[in-house]
Design a protein that fits this description.
Elements lengths: L2 E4 L9 H16 L3 E6 L11 H11 L6 E4 L4 H13 L3 E4 L28 E4 L6 E6 L4 E6 L7 E3 L7 H11 L4 E5 L6 H11 L5 E5 L19 H6 L4 H9 L14 H7 L14 H14 L2 H11 L1 H5 L2 H11 L9 H4 L1 H4 L13 H14 L5 H14 L4 H13 L7 H8 L1 H13 L1
Parallel strand pairs: 1-2, 2-3, 9-10
Antiparallel strand pairs: 4-5, 5-8, 6-7
The structure holds glutamic acid.
Glutamic acid binds next to loops.
Amino acid sequence: MVRTRFAPSPTGSMHIGNLRTAFYAYALAKHEKGDFILRIEDTDKKREVLGGVDDIKDLLGIFGIEWDEFYLQSERLSVYKKFAEKLVADGHAFYCRCEAKNAKEDGFSTSLRDVCRDKGLKSGAIKLRVPDNEEIKFTDFVLRDEIIWHSPVVFDATLLKSDGFPTYHLAVVVDDHEMKISHVLRGHDWLPSTPIHLLLYKYFGFEIPEIGHLTDILDPEGGKLSKRKGSTSVRGLLGEGYLPEALFNFVILSGWAPKDNRELFNLSEFVKAFDSDGFQKSNPVFNREKLDWFNGQYIRQMSDEDLNSKFQSQSPQFTKLDQSDQLSITKLIKDRVKKTSDINEFAKFFWEAPVVDKNLFSEKYTEHLEVAQDTILAIEQWNNETINEQLLKSVKDNGFKTGDFFMTLRIAITGQKFTPPINDSIIILGQEETLTRLQKAFSS
Ligand code: GLU
């Protein structure tokens, strides 16, 4: 039975790298009709944020990820304590009173052997007694490579703190065993912890699961993708107007590739196609253009009504417009937007008259504006066909260049050179507002 887990710590907004781990772990289990477990690693109470657990659950829900079992490590403290004490009894761990001075905090630079290891203390924190000269190795199922450490480079890690809380190392090993996890998938930054875990598996007599470390997602500017370099939080990206479907599709293809060149996957298609041979060994780069492309694909697939309500959630001004105007605008810009937040930029001129920069106009703009005003004023049937017909007639009668004339109109009405089709926009704005804007552009 394949059983995987996603084991986030509720320490703040989820990063897309974590989300990717969840997607892969889910697909790995579900492809084999196995179980996916959500385990909250909340043993570091100092770093926990309020509402963090609900936020994780909520985010997974947004992407349609359901878990078969749910655990909170903070509810399992007695289990870890029992295991830690057994290790002391077996001689593989020792009590220590200088918990704060951990070799890890010294950045591995000083001696990795703890000063308390041979003092025979009877209480305090519990630390792992790392063997002196041993080879510790395993084969990573993502990297498809054997990784070897020599025990002198592994530090005497704290397993149980003196307050009774386990550290990550102890809790993760005990839980992965007790929860019968067959495949452990985690980010690359956890790799240095693995030799500690391998020793624990051995000392506890646990079977070692398959362990795989995922590649890092890189920043296009170099280095690892990080918060400092822009939005990498899942909430942030959703807030920017990326659809969950697009984000999902983008994220799963950042580190995994199908056998064919297929690009569009929803969750169930991904589960069906999943194969751990598809994990790529080289670090993917966070390619925002690609994300925009995916988002565009999914926006085009949405119904106008659904897209309209996404636009509403991005823009209070848009929401205030007349219902049928909203829908007309949605249809008008559906093919052009990359993100749902683009509504604020693409449609702003519908609720706010522009400040027109005269420098944008071509030479003949005053003539254009005059003719446009007269033509629009004379239109009796306010519909696309008539507007088109009448404006084109005026262009012809006055010997204007069509493109040039409509550019003047576009700039006068919207303040910009690139906008949705201008005649359709004019219909939505209405005859009166169109005339007002033409007049304003004239006298600006
Ligand atoms: N709690 C760790 C995290 O936040 C889990 C690492 C693991 O999956 O072993 O990523």
